[in-house]
Amino acid sequence: FGIATDENFVITTTNRKEITEDNFSDLVQDGVTLYLLQSVDQMLLSATKERIDFLPHYDTLVKSGMYEYYASEGQNPLPFALAELIDNSLSATSRNTDIRSIQIKLLFDDSQGKPAVAVIDNGRGMTSKQLNNWAVYRLSKFTRQGDFESDHSGYVRPLPVPRSLNSDISYFGVGGKQAVFFVGQSARMISKPADSQDVHELVLSKEDF
Q1: Three-state DSSP class for 135?
Q2: Residue 65: pLDDT above 70?
Q3: What is the spatial distance between Cα 11 and Cα 1, in angstroms, rounded to a whole number?
Q4: CA torsion sign, 108 to 111 to 117 to 118?
Q5: Domains along the chain?
Q6: What is the pTM of this model?
Q7: Mind listing the pLDDT tens digit for each residue in 186-203?
Q8: Helix, strand, coil % (nearest 5) of the chain?
Q9: For residues 171-196, average pLDDT
C-alpha cells in the first residue's frame, strides 16, 4: 500500500469504526469493505463503491402478493406505498430538537430525467451499514451478521399525539422495496449521518433487484 515504516495508519469500517484486536472478529466478516486511512476522521480522497449481495428470505416468496391483497379488498395500494416511503423520514426525524422537516416532491421535469417521487428530510441520517441492510429484502434475524444496524436503530416510538403521524407505519404490510418498485423502476437513497462527514448513496434498480 506504499506505507512508510514510520507512518501511522488505521483500518476502519465504512461507518468509521476502527478495527482493533478486540473487535476484529465482530467487525471483519467475509466480503466487508474496509478503509485504510491516516486517521479515523480523514476525508476520503474519492468515492468508494461496494456491491450488496444477499440470499433472499423465504418471506420474499410467501408474502410477495401484498398488492394483490389490497386490490382484492377494493383498496388503492398507492397510498400504502407512499406511506411506506416516508416511514424512514418519520423515524429519522423523531428525535429532532429543532424543526422537523419532511418534504414529498413529485418531479415531472423531463430535463432532469425520468419522473420521480422524492422524499427529503432533515433527520439523523443513515450509515452505510443501515443503507446496506435496507437494501436486503426482508432481512431476517437468522441471517444478520455482526455489526448489524437496523435502518430504525436507536428509534424510540414517540408518545401518541392526536392527528399526527408517528413512525411504525410498516404495519400496512408494504415493504420498502415493494413500495419503491410499485411506484417506479429504481431507488436512490442519499444520506449523511449526523455525526459523520461521509455521504452515503444507495442505488437499487428493479432489474438488478
Answers
A1: helix
A2: no
A3: 12
A4: negative
A5: 1-54 (no CATH), 58-147+160-205 (3.30.565.10)
A6: 0.71
A7: 889 999 988 888 999 988
A8: 25, 15, 60
A9: 77
